[in-house]
Amino acid sequence: MSLDFKNYNLRPELLKALEQKNFKEPMPVQDCVLSSDYSEKDLIVRAKTGSGKTLAFLLPLLNNLDKGTRTPQILILAPTRELAQQTADEAEFLGGFLNFNTASLVGGMDIVQQLKTLKKGAAVIAGTPGRVRDHLNRGSLKSDDIKAIVLDEGDLMLDMGFRDELEYILNALPKDRQTWLFSATMPDEVRILAGKYLKEPLNLSLDAEGEQHEDILHRVYQIPSNKRFEGLVDILLFEHPSRSLVFCHTKLESIEIAQKLQDHGFNAAALQGDMTQDERNAVLASFKSGSMPCLVATNVAARGLDINGVSHVIQLGLPDDQETFIHRSGRTGRAGHEGVNLILLSPREAGRFKAMLKGTEIKVEWRDVPGLDKIRQAWFENTEQELFAAPIDKNFGEYVSWAGDLLTRAEAKILVAKLLSALSAKSKGYSLDTELAREINKRSGKKLAQPKKQPPEVRKNKGQRPKGIMKRFISNKAHNTGHILNAICTALKVEKREVGAIRFKNDCVLVELMPLAVSRLEKSKDGLAKFGLRQN
Fold first, then answer.
1. pTM of this structure
2. Is 3 exposed, middle or buried (CB count within 10 Å of its CB: 0-12, 13-18, 19+)?
């Protein structure tokens, strides 16, 4: 029997709203929640990103709201402004059929307008932890009548350092409310929070950790070491994504790569933390519409992005850990659509990546970077498909007449060849396949052959990198090596090569910094503080 929203005892107004959006069959996570005994119970829902979680919590919670309610009844917290605003928009649409309003309380936006909305009266509040806490402190958000709180993307909120804000908000709410936690993964920090604030929760799980996302194809491309950007260009030309989200490790790297892609003729932009909210909104609007099809971002900048139509996620280099890999890949293959997750790795990184996925059910397709002949052939095929599938617009007759006139003055084959040449991409790609094969063979040979013994003075200096200075930092957040590396590189605006060893001690973190990083350390205290780090 096929599923239908009419099977869940939803109010006629909500069914009408769903019909207007052309939502007919519930997605698995929506069916799982709506079919459960959720009434007056706390919930923990494990589901991958892009699975339709927003409707999974909005429909059952709104179904029990009194029509025309004007006091805050439902509070929804999300890790990013974009996700909170998307949730608010969805709630506002559904609420319009039940005669109640929604308030969006996010940082970086006009607080005066938010105060006016709250004063007017809103039954649903969707916001980010920091701004919601601010309104609770001001007294502008009254929590007395809140019946339910939803922690959406709970793992990401904790990963981004919102634990203090979450605990403050949860402690400020009525004790008899419902608490619903939606999370793609359940690391220890999430389990601890759930154990403290959820009472005998009903656990609903739609996927096990490390399980294959059936709508996402994972593909690794091996590229030569120190040729990461050139490899990205080749893969963009070969894969020809309609809309791609490229992940980098640092903010500076994302800016540089977006600029280089523009120089190579790609329509790309960076999404990074120094942008104003208006700039972020403009870039995201261009990306969502498809007018700017390539977005380059860091993990932090892209947290919580919920954008349908991302055909490809491209991860540059080895992800920090398995969870980072899963979260990044979850930006594609959303809402029932298929997606492709590409990882560009050097041969050395490839071995470490295999170890990272050991014990998971994730299947990965392995390929070497294509040669120029294959890239060229792929361009031919894509261009043909686009030409044959191009729609006929209202001015098509004029073009037909113009084409007929041109054909009387030029040989057809030469004319078409000139047009195709004009359509050709600015960048022709890089010849990397031979260099990659040489590197793979060299690495393979190293494993088999014993190196010749060298004089002491040669052994002492060969391959020796510059020695840095160890600096001591105090961290007030839970960090791993990847987080520390990203924080240092972003705050000091340096590349990864400027950071050496990272060692965790009982009360501090020791980080080896090269001269350039040391020179920028004193002026970057505020930047480090944003990541919960301070120099000791």
1. 0.57
2. middle
Instruction: Report, as ranges of residue numbers, the positions in the chain whose pLDDT lies below 70.
Output: 1-2, 48-50, 207-214, 300-306, 334-336, 425, 445-466, 478-479
Q: Is residue 364 within 8 Å of 218, Cβ to Cβ?
A: yes
pLDDT attached to residue 457: 47
Q: Is-contact 91 102, C-beta < 8 A?
A: yes
Which residues does 167 contact at the CB level (< 8 Å), separation at least 6?
193, 197
Which DSSP string corresponds to 443-469?
Answer: HHHHHHSPPPP--HHHHHHTTPPPP-E
3 state SS of 480: coil
pLDDT at 448: 38
Task: Describe the chain by its helix, strand, coil percentages, rounded to 5.
Answer: 45, 15, 40
> Which three-class secondary structure string do you get for 348-384?
HHHHHHHHHCCCCCCCEEEEECCCHHHHHHHHHHHHH
DSSP letter, residue 66: P
Closest alpha carbon to 297 in 40, 490, 36, 499: 490
Q: What is the C-alpha separation between 154 and 171, in angstroms, rounded?
A: 17
Neighbour order of strands in the sheet with 499-504? 499-504, 509-513, 469-475, 533-535
- Residues 77/83/87/89 CA torsion (nearest 10 deg): 130
- Say if CB 225 and CB 370 are below 8 A apart: no
User: Residues 283, 269: contact at Cβ < 8 Å?
Assistant: yes
Distance CA 104, CA 419 (A): 49
Tell me, rounded to whole angstroms, the distance of Cα 114 from its chain centroid: 27
Beta strands in 8-96 (DSSP E): 43-46, 74-77
CB-count exposure of residue 453 (10 Å: 0-12, 13-18, 19+): exposed
List CB contacts of 100: < 8 A, sequence separation 6 or more.
Answer: 65, 67, 68, 69, 70, 122, 123, 124
Rounded to whole angstroms, the Cα distance separating 464 from 483 reads 26
CA dist., res. 186 & res. 191, Å (int): 6
| DSSP designation for 442 | H
Q: What is the pLDDT of residue 238?
A: 94
In this prediction, residue 17 carries a pLDDT of: 94
Q: Are 498 and 517 in contact (CB under 8 A)?
A: yes
- For residue 76, report the phi and psi dihedrals to the nearest 5 degrees: -120, 125
Strand locations in 71-209 (E): 74-77, 102-105, 124-127, 148-152, 178-183, 202-205
Question: How far is the CA of 133 from the CAs of 4, 72, 146, 166, 262, in angstroms?
Answer: 38, 15, 15, 8, 40
pLDDT digits (tens, 9 = 90+) for 397-444: 888 898 899 999 989 898 888 888 887 767 788 999 889 998 888 887
CA 237-240-242 angle, 5° bins: 145
By residue count, the chain amounts to: 536
Supply the pLDDT for residue 462. 46
Angle at 308 between CA 100 and CA 344, to 5 degrees: 145
